[in-house]
Amino acid sequence: MSRITRLLVASDLTDRSQRAFERGLELKSEAGASLTVLHAVEPGLLPAIGEKRYADAEEFLHKQIADLPETKRAGLGSDVQVGEPFTTIIDEAHKLGAELIVLGQPVKSGFKELFTGTTTDRVVRFSDLPVLVVKESPGGAYERVLVAMDLSEGAVRAFEASFGIAPDAQFLIVHAWHEAVMGFGTSDAAKRLTARENQRVRDLVERKSKEFLSRFAPRAKSPQFELIEGSPEAVIRDQIARFEPDLLAMGTHARSPLKVATLGSLAREFLAQAPCDVLVVRA
After folding, report:
1. Three-state DSSP class for 79?
2. Which of 283, 236, 276 is nearest to 132 (CA)?
3. Which residue among 47, 69, 130, 269 has its CA within the 20 to 30 Å range from the CA of 259?
4. In the chain, which residues fall in CATH 3.40.50.620?
5. pLDDT given for residue 93 in this prediction
6. Residue 207 pLDDT more than 60?
7. For the domain 1-139, what is the CATH superfamily, name and number?
8. How would CATH label the architecture of 141-283?
9. Pick the residue with more confidence: 28 or 122?
10. Tens digit of pLDDT for each residue in 229-256?
11. Which of 116-120, 242-246, 272-276 has the lowest mean pLDDT?
């Protein structure tokens, strides 16, 4: 993915959306992109209430833009639509030709299960565009990006999208590795066969990873790649603590022929718990 040229920030008029708006402005400035701030008024309200919410949202977004310095207002617009928020966000992003959807983090909770069902969750699950979930007010461009890499289509797209919004960052790409376990009483011949198979798979992962990285080496800033033994959740959590990224990029994928996406447990875990912004891309 090259530098973005159009992005959509979805706002529910909360402080969480304000952080997403600030990050959107940062990305817009870095890439010279255009940015649209969208608010969706839920349908089915009584006419008087719906009309007031629509007018209040328009007034708020117009003022939010008008209060910015003139240099930041170029290429910046706002839009208010009536509709189910998550479908409105996805539909409007496509109508605008946006390459990235930026959202604020849902209300924080200690339970990743409570993330399910939110507008953010639904946009991540159903959008075929990269979705950036912003948790902190930006202090500048992204500097350290951690990519959870399993060489799936979603993970590769996540790396490409993260490079598109943070081309000058330091990248750490990690692949969690699980060796096949030999049970008690396994024969020596079976142990040797299992060891050879483990090494074969490890060599394959390393070769594919090097091939993948070679495509981006001329553009990326010396990306690091690490193959680490352990469960994906534990490996990513440890690398977040060690590397202290300001952006985590990961892929997810649809799980049915009809492309009805389910948000994987790993993505849900880190969308809820990661201390940094999270970029999720669906295959």
Report:
1. strand
2. 276
3. 269
4. 1-139, 141-283
5. 97
6. yes
7. HUPs (3.40.50.620)
8. 3-Layer(aba) Sandwich (3.40)
9. 28
10. 888 899 999 999 999 999 999 998 655 4
11. 116-120
Distance CA 104, CA 106 (A): 6
User: Beta strands of 52-205 (E only): which ranges?
Assistant: 76-82, 100-104, 131-134, 144-148, 170-177
CB count within 10 Å of CB 41 equals 21
* pLDDT for 182 beyond 60: no
Q: How far is CA 1 from CA 156, 161, 163, 165, in A?
A: 10, 5, 7, 9
Share of the chain above pLDDT 70, in %: 79
CA-CA-CA-CA torsion sign (85, 91, 93, 95):
negative
Nearest to 27 by CA among 122, 127, 130: 130
Average pLDDT over residues 124-128: 90
- Phi/psi at 231 (nearest 5 deg)? -70, 150
Residue corresponding to tokens 């999208």: 161
Q: What is the DSSP letter of 254?
A: B
Within 13 Å of residue 273, how many CA atoms lie on the same side as its CB? 16
* C-beta atoms surrounding 276 within 10 Å: 21
Residue type for position 99: E
Three-state secondary structure along 165-187?
A: HCCCCEEEEEEEECCCCCCCCCC
If we measure between CA atoms, which residue out of 176, 147, 100, 120 comes closest to residue 245? 147
pLDDT tens-digit profile of 41-77? 999 999 999 999 999 999 999 999 999 999 999 999 9
Residue with the two structure tokens 């565009």: 129
